[in-house]
Amino acid sequence: MITPLDIENKKFHLGLIAYRRKEVDDFMKNLSTDYERLHNENIELKEKMIFLEERLKQFETLQETLQSTLVVAQKAAEDLNYTAREQAERIIKEAEGDANERKRQASLQSEQIKKIYDKVKIENLAYLGKMKGFLKNQLEVVYAYEDELKRGE
């Protein structure tokens, strides 16, 4: 590859028909300057391209990492959702079981209370019957005593 220095140091030999030396030298100087500028730009662009390729590789690596992280996060969310549903179903079943057991126990207690109530009711009716009989006997005694008093005996 020709360097800017090669262009600047290039010497031409004189032939039979020659160009004007001053014009060739000026042209070569301009050419050398432009070529040096382009050469330096080319070097800078190559360095920039290398830098950008490295950055691209970093971004591609980051993208792969983010994609795998996203997959892991999505799997974790699905697992969490599944676990939460299972736990909710278990809690609901337990609550239904507890409710049914409490309902059964309440029904048993209700039956026991009804039996006790019926027994107390029968005992009260029996007591009232005895009280009526006792009061009836007492009234008979009172009426007999009243009759006795009326007869004057």
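the 2nd protein, sequnce then structure:
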Amino acid sequence: MGSYSSLLTKSQDSYILGLWGADKYVRTSSIGLSNTNLLLINRFAGFLISRFPKDRLRLRIYGNEVPENFEGTKSTFCKGSKNKKPAFHIYVNCRPLVREFVFALGNRSLLQGESVYSYFAGRFDGDGSISVDTKGAKFCRIVYGNLKDLQKDRVLLNNVKTSVYRYRRAGTYCLYFSTETLNKFLERISPYLVSSKLI
């Protein structure tokens, strides 16, 4: 087999893999990101622009205004969003890129070194949060739609204590980080975070 995708080997692209892994927007021939956070949309768009001419990108807007930096991108205004704030969907039509993302996420066990923490920074930006209880203790979690996906990520964190909680009503699973190792984990992912939620 030839060289692996930059999604598995370059930390800046491993972040994109983690971010997409949290959202997983994919169709037969298109791949992209849906979010209300323009910082994340811009970051994903930057990755796409590194591979395609800007006019290949497509942007769906669930709101009234085209955001800055997207002039020259084919934009479509959509109705029906229940979001309280504008939402955006950036994507590109490219079957080889779809295959690359699906392969990379399915083989994320190949991530090494800083790419692991960059990947988790993307995952955290996409579906992570931190809360503080009344005693001042920090709790960090990343939400997953299924247990198999969570377990694959948990294996990557072989030296980080975590626990799993299932929210039956929401149909989700949460990966919680132990207070013993939380600060070290946050320290490792913080250089790669785009949308800082750290307290």
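The chain has a mean pLDDT of 89. Helices lie at 6-9, 11-23, 38-49, 95-106, 114-127, 147-156, 182-189.
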